[in-house]
Amino acid sequence: MPNTRSEGAMKEEDQTPTDPVQLMMAMMKEMKEEAKKREDQLMRQLQEQAQDFAAALQTNRGNAGGSTKSKKMDVPVLKCPEDINLADFRDWQQRFADYTEVQKIMEECTLSGRQSLLRSGLDPAWTKLWSTGILEIDDRKDDINDIIKKILHYIREHRNPLLDRKEFLERNQHAGESIDVYYSALKSIDESCGYDVNPTCKVCDDACGHGDELQQERLRDRLICGLKDQAIQQKVLAIPFKDLTLKKALEVCRVEAASKETQASLNKSERQVNRLKERSSYKKGKIDNNPLSKSAQKADERCSNCGRKKHQKPDQCWARDKDCNNCGKTGHLKHMCRSEPKKEVNRMTIGQVKTSDDLVKITAKIGNADHQEVEWLPDTGAECDVITADCLKKVGTKVKDLRKDKAELCGPDQGRLKSLGKVTATLEREGMKYKTELHVLEKGTGPILSKAGCIALGLIPTGWPHVVNKLSLSSPDEGNGVDMLLKSQSAASIREQLFQEFPEVFPPDDEVLPLKPMKGPPMKIELLPGTSPIRRYRCNTIPLHWQDKVKAHLETMVQKQIIERVPQGEAPEWLFSMVVVPKAGTDEPRVTVDFSPLNPFVKRPMYPCRVPAEEVAQIPPGMTHFTVLDGRHGYWQVLLDKPSSKIMTFNTPWGCSVT
């Protein structure tokens, strides 16, 4: 097919920069042109707004004869709020000065007109301070600039400079924030910290400009310490300290940040091109970029037994004496096994002997053979009874008499154990008998008795580790007149007595009482600065057979004062989605709320907690029985303060609720 592209298009394509440096310069040039366009657009908008204000402005024009002309004066849109800080007020002051300059208010308005214009741009709280004389403003001679200076002085006197200095020292670069924006924020905060810009030098007793140097050092140090990218930070710190000025640090940061953005853009384009190439090659069937296929092509370069580099001699392979955990054969490892993976049928776990103090003497009988007592380890984690080959003589049998064992035996580390076979035996202890299949291991630390054997021989109660059906309680002080002896009573009777004795804890089934809150101050959720409210209006679908149960559960939580409904017509500022999932092992619904979008913006509180080793060290010596108590729905009793409660608002098919 002939080439139909024009010579101009081909020439333009040939001039496309391919060098990364040229590409970065081209991108920076485009960014500069876009910034210029945005600046021109903002200037046009400002001029249009100024023309609108000039058309609506009404004031008095002074002249020598005292004649005046009246225009309509409109309230400026640049409002100064009541709780403004020093940095924001300076920004408002600059914008208000630009507004007065564009409107030519200083030339065309009288003193009272200029004061009225400024008063209309202030919050009512500031006008009250003005009218009551707290700002010490003289309406007869103070102009706009004088009044603004007095407001600035008032803000400075009523704000502790340490708060601004603390904010300056803790200001770090935010995620996605450019170097220039970060530096501008630092400089704005520094100007509000109350440092003297040109203090009198203690060395030369003159305003020599050392104050500017101190300010640049502060900005340089805070700029470097607050960088989010550690690679850029290390690049700046590599500069000798005597050459590291604020200007130099800013240049390095800008160049490194621009380089990273360019590299990321190039990598993104390269990944997209590679993805297209792989797809087309796969469809044509010419190239297979699958790493597994490449490794298969080099299989002859690896040892077929251990998977490492091929040995010069077969007997040099370290896996020649190893047993495969897949097929059980000797001479190769599991990941190099060529047999089909076996299904884990009759997989049994075997415990391990730790000490000799826990061993129990049990008699094992096999047919009419001679037998003797053997020490067994009761292990409730074992699923089968195991005996070693060296103990077979004690129970009256030999290895050649064993039957084939098809069960797959695993140790406590899930490693495969080699079984020589199995034999039927009867275990006896204190008149109790237990018939079982003994699995014989080639190696081991001794016979192991399974959980079923422990129950059959009376070593542990039936149903262990569940609750025992009999309890025995006694009061430490039996002379107080209260009969607390509940010896040999059933668990049901004790439960009924506890319900009667503590009705505020165990109310009747048909009565729902408010849940008692936990003692202490309410919990407060602190958000990171600049966090915007999150709203998830979509309500997740609840299966039809769960809807009645979920609704009843929410009603119960409302009656217990765990949650409360949002009033009808009130629009919540924060809103998250309720998620209903099945409880583990049952088909009952479990009500949860998806707060994952909120988690990244929450300050993580730190609570000191002892490690398990410290907890165990606090147990008095000689203790043998231990109990673990788990509080059911423990977080329901933790109160939330009002702002935190509104943050955790969630939606349901029947309306919104807050915790």
From TrEMBL:
GO terms for molecular function: nucleic acid binding; zinc ion binding. Residues 21-56 form a coiled coil. Residues 324-339 form the CCHC-type domain. This is Transposon Tf2-6 polyprotein. It comes from the Eukaryota. It comes from Caligus rogercresseyi. Signal peptide: none annotated. The keyword Zinc-finger applies. Residues 1-20, 264-296 are annotated as: Disordered. GO terms for biological process: DNA biosynthetic process. The keyword Zinc applies. Residues 268-287 have a biased composition (Basic and acidic residues). Keywords: Coiled coil, Metal-binding, Zinc, Zinc-finger.
